[in-house]
Fold each of these.
Amino acid sequence: MNVAKSGYRVFSANSTPACTELAKKITERLGVELGKSVVYQESNRETRVEIKESVRGQTIFIIQTIPRDVNTAVMELLIIAYALKTSCAKNIIGVIPYFPYSKQCKMRKRGSIVCKLLASMLAKAGLTHIITMDLHQKEIQGFFSFPVDNLRASPFLLQYIQEEVPDYRNAIIVAKSPSAAKRAQSYAERLRLGLAVMHGEAQCSESDMADGRQSPPCVRNTGHPGLELPLMMAKEKPPITVVGDVGGRIAIIVDDIIDDVEDFVAAAEILKERGAYKIYIMATHGLLSADAPRLIEESAIDVVVVTNTVPHEVQKLQCPKIKTVDVSMILAEAIRRIHNGESMAYLFRNITVDD
């Protein structure tokens, strides 16, 4: 493809070589060259961006993967978007496979909804559209004032199960908490497999965190005569329960993000005790923070399968159990369709609301 006449450019917003791998795979599939830009950190840790070619009147795609230094990656994305905006780019589309701060999309006590703040910042910096994958909550799309294409990684993970998991017909899909049951049910129905749901003390659901609804403490005497609020009963989780028979089966736990792995390790131990003879974990975004590789290596988990939405080469060196599925194909196709004004429906075929 003639880059000069294509009418669009693809840039990488990363300052580290490890994070440009996905951008290179996407541009190779598109048949274009990666845009010429320089993104680096100055000695005082300020981010500097220099665009090395004209982008006037063109559609620009910025590919940004999120390494461990999340805040630096966010600033890189904001600054390069603003640099392109002030260079008179026609449209600036962010390709952000893993959207950072997506877990902070609900109000917690006296905190803030950081995900909405980031959405506003991206719009202010000049982005007009984003392509992302498996948002932590689909409602996050409502934070944006411009279009959002939330792609799905499930077809690639399902293909991995069918091709790489020996005797996958003897597997059972497991949701490690009731909140993950819809995603697990979707996998089970597509693979024609059984479904098991875990519930109890071993799981730590995000929805169970303190959100301030009992602050100030619930007391009868509120200081206002005649106003008596009912006392709120404290939650108490039952002992760990696995709803579904996993004995003699391959257990496949599915989720969207695997970061702190303590919950997954605890779930794997329970499944082993219930008779599962092999444990797989399938997740779209492999953040694998802190000691996650070591904990996985020492646990009952056999294989962890994640996509390359987040760089994790260092973690793979520390833990051979981690496997990677490439999703650059669907990202490249999304870029091509958006530029050509084609429908995105093909990328969402057989995708339901619960996926």
Amino acid sequence: MAGILAWFWNERFWLPHNVTWADLKNTEEATFPQAEDLYLAFPLAFCIFMVRLIFERFIAKPCAIALNIQASGPQIAQPNAILEKVFTAITKHPDEKRLEGLSKQLDWDVRSIQRWFRQRRNQEKPSTLTRFCESMWRFSFYLYVFTYGVRFLKKTPWLWNTRHCWYNYPYQPLTTDLHYYYILELSFYWSLMFSQFTDIKRKAAKMANYAKFQKLCDLLFVMFAMVFITTRLGIFPLWVLNTTFFESWEIVGPYPSWWVFNLLLLLLQGLNCFWSYLIIKIACKAISRGKAGKWNPLHVSKDDRSDIESSSDEEDSEPPGKNPHTATTTNGTSGTNGYLLTGSCSMDD
């Protein structure tokens, strides 16, 4: 194990030329980052996860109930043994050929089977109450971290003088506030490892959507778009990438981990451009949906991030004079395997 750690923390990879780990030992005058500090994130991650459970149960849920957000989920699909077997054992998205086969087998029209599978997929989605609680937790944590970070930056002038940082690199002392900030952030994202398979990816603006506060939802989305594009396409490349690429090259010079970190930052900038494109696309599509003669605010609840999947070619209404399917009596029961009711099935989304 010691050999593996020694290989992983090879100072020729992580540190600039002529710098060793011994040069970064803590002294009475200064404290420097230590590799052992990373181990603190694991127990703290578990603690944050437990705090999240308490927060969602005793704070977020009462707030949701006060806003009349119900725990009911999507509409339940009508029970059908044959379709359920296909859904669980074969595919959740049947192709056209399979749909036609099921249509003949059940004596349902293809459209009704498509609707059943859509409802069945939505049935596995969490309730609005669950989504609200998770969104409120993330909103609260990010708001706290953002507020703390802004307050910390105000009293840390050397962070604004980036060239001064590189002249002292890597001998810049680690302050208590900075240490707390990094460990808290690292612990939070490690805590997501406990819940990443059950989390619902939602934004803070979605809380207003769940609470039916459409104007607030629109306003939050506009604010989010402006802040995101300004910081990710403006401040990040012009300030952060400029200093990590050019100023560090000029003052410190490249070394192996320099290339790794800067390539990762460059990859992040590529993702920022892609995400900004999606945000702008959503905004343009929302504006284009405005009614004639009246500008319509950005309907975030109807954008590409909507909670319930839908398709423009899968309308709820059926053509006039056409029943979704015809019931066939088998063994004295109505429908196939006793699951199909006579007449139109109630499968509206």
Amino acid sequence: MCSAVAFHFSSPASVNWLQTLPLQREQPIYTTRAHVFQIDPTTKKNWVPASKQAVTVSYFYDSTRNSYRIISVDGSKVIINSTITPNMTFTKTSQKFGQWADSRANTVFGLGFASEQQLTKFAEKFQEVKEAAKLARDKSQEKVETLSNHSQESGSETPSTNQASSINGTDDEKISHVGPEAALLKSENEHLKSVVEQSNTNAKKQETELQTLRENNARLVDALQESSANVESWKKQLSACKEESDTLREKIAELEAQCNEANQEKQKNAQLTVRVQELETELQDKEQELENLRRQAEIIPQLMAECESISAKLQAAETKNKELEGRIEGLQMDINDSRQKQGNMKGELKKFMDILDGKIDELHEVRQGLSKLGVDN
């Protein structure tokens, strides 16, 4: 994991953020890559990107504390340090985006994945870790309840012994029946006993508290030594990671330069390939055009013969056309003459009809006159 992250220290104060990194007792149980976002603390609506690119997001398990954390580091910046509790819920808001709220950090984290499968796997792992955290909390509560029950039982045994002693009685109580001085001594004796018992109880409590403080102090010393050792170990690991990261960056720069050169060569090759294809296409077009010209050259003699034949036929047709035009002009003149004669005949026929109508009218009048004569006779 160190080879993928580069860390830089500008001053000793920058070591404080190591407390948020996974300790040696914490083991990674699942790792993925995603774009990290946090909710805008002002609007509580908009997302603010916490990483410029996809970064590593990991689940860590602390076997000593029996706790789980989600940790993500971008360079020398810790962008996620969220302890999983049973009350947390991971929500899928889209096919590639999910979020959860962290009340301790007072923010809402969002993760954008490259695929829906990665989001589903992260959500399933979140549910598993949540159930494990719930079981750990239930077990710790059972231990606390068991310890409290034992303490109550031990506390209830003390007054029973005192009660037994009061029932059996003491020599002082037996002597108290002798006189008032004995009664005064009895009361002072009881007062001294109560003071001694109270002092013994306080001494036991102080011894218990002192023992607890010693144990806590020892634990703190061990934790401090462990943290110091972890810090030194992390310093060494970080320096090694930094050197490895610098080496990888140099290699990446070299590879990028080589990739750029290769891309330029690829572009040139692609341009040359396109130019070659264009030239091949032009060559095929020229060859096709040349083939067409060859075919046309082969049929030129035939076309010339056909052209001469057509020219002869055209001349004959023009001669016939002239003859037909002459005939048409003669026929047109004949038609005009016939039309003129027909007009003259129509005029004469009209005149004849008019004369005939007059004759018919005269005959009609003669007939009527004859009819009248016949009637009179």
Amino acid sequence: MEKQLHLNRLPSRPPMAGGFQSGSKMKMGPGRKRDFSPLPWSQYFETMEDVEVENEDGKDTFRIYCSGSHGPVLFLLHGGGHSALSWAVFTTVICSRINCRVVAMDLRAHGDSKVKNQDDLSADTMAKDIGKVVEALYGDAPPPIMMIGHSMGGAIAVHTAAANHVPSLLGLCVIDVVEGTAMDALNSMQNFLRSRPKSFKSLENAIEWSVKSGQIRNMESARVSMGGQVKKCQESTSSPAVSNSISEGIIEEEEDEEAAEESNKKRMKEDDQEVQKESFFTWRVELSKTEKYWEGWFRGLSSLFLSCPAPKLLLLAGVDRLDKDLTIGQMQGKFQMQVLPQCGHAVHEDAPEKVADALATFMVRHKFTEFKEGFLC
């Protein structure tokens, strides 16, 4: 099987005809209309805030979404090109399972975070960002924190843990990112990025593409998370027809005064039309420009993950993800692993219940928290 890492789409098997993959939730009977309208963050998180931190270049602001009031903190890190909203449906599910608090963060240059240096997406810089946000939120006495990261976010979670930027680290959960598979796939990333649409006519159009392409198989998750991947832009509605009519007016103006007056009125009307803007949506992050950081995210990831002393959970979309170091480590019991079949690369979006169940069981087993009263595991 040709292994591909598409930053945030690393399918466990080749796509089927029509863009759907086996196990997709999007196969519907004829005549059923699908709703691609966006859903608000407030339906899944309790609060949203911007956290300001000091950096060498000045102040940076990171957008976070939170839920829960007691228990350990689940600090959620999204994959490349995505945003904290990719954790929306998962957050609702996990908060119904266990006593916990959730903090989902828009990483540097992603989502609605605003930083001075948008181009620095090195693992070291992003790991420091997380440490600073944790410090800004909790000061010198942070609560127990379980760090959970998907894809690029999983790699950054490992780098953050290895550098001890979160001293109260309780445990580490990495979702569908393995060094061997990632490094093998670096060469195919640009091809995937070039194959994506450059823009969308509407947010609904972007949501529809994400589902039909197989990037996100869960319709509900796509409807809330795609707003964090794309942004609204504007372009002039000027067209060749407008340009031609202006040129014709200039020619007529030279012929006689009456035609010139008529031409001026026509140009003023067309100028007004040209000012009008037409909205469209494009990607928030130009992932192709981050290529120089890809190797730094993934190189040495397996040994860093294995060396982390905190209890570890690795969730994968397919068993083919495991590389040699992790295979040996798993046999030695250095971490717990679970394969969640029939998922694409966005495991926590495709199957939020399965991911929540695996994480809840892991945390209760390690006595990090307890199941909520009345929840049947």
